[in-house]
Amino acid sequence: MTIGRCVFASLFVFAVMMPVAAQAQSFNCRTAERPDEILICQSPRLRELDEIMASLYFSLRNRLYGAARAELEASQSAWLRSRIACGRDYGCIESHYRRRIRQLRNY
To answer: Which residues, at least 6 apart from 95, have a Cβ–Cβ distance to it below 8 Å?
Structure first.
């Protein structure tokens, strides 16, 4: 094998084995700074809940207009502030997501 092929093979193996960056749906894990965001990015289950919540929220928001949409956005902002207050408390964050998902499904 030539040196060029050896280098290429090594780079290919490195690229394949390199972990994919965790990505929540409602924010970018690469720029996560707050304790709640960091914990969400580190936890597959919390990322999954974030993806479910974000999908429900954006789907609902895109169907609403005027006062109904403003009300939904205000409730999402209030929910986000309460999730941020959880800090690195896994149970707190998880329960916030579960409660918000129920609210969005029943909206």
So the answer is: none
Task: Identify the burial level of 33 via C-beta atoms within 10 angstroms of its C-beta, where 0-12 means exposed, 13-18 middle and 19 or more buried.
Answer: exposed
How many whole angstroms separate alpha carbon 57 and alpha carbon 52? 9
Question: Is residue 77 exposed (0-12), middle (13-18) or buried (19+ Cβ within 10 Å)?
Answer: exposed
Per-residue pLDDT reduced to its tens digit, 55-70? 999 999 999 999 999 9
Q: 66-84 and 44-63 are packed helices; what angle lies between their axes, rounded to 10 degrees?
A: 160
- Domain hosting 48: range is 3-105
Confidence at residue 24, expressed as pLDDT on a 0 to 100 scale? 64
90-105 helix and 44-63 helix, angle to the nearest 10 degrees: 30
Domain tally, the chain? 1
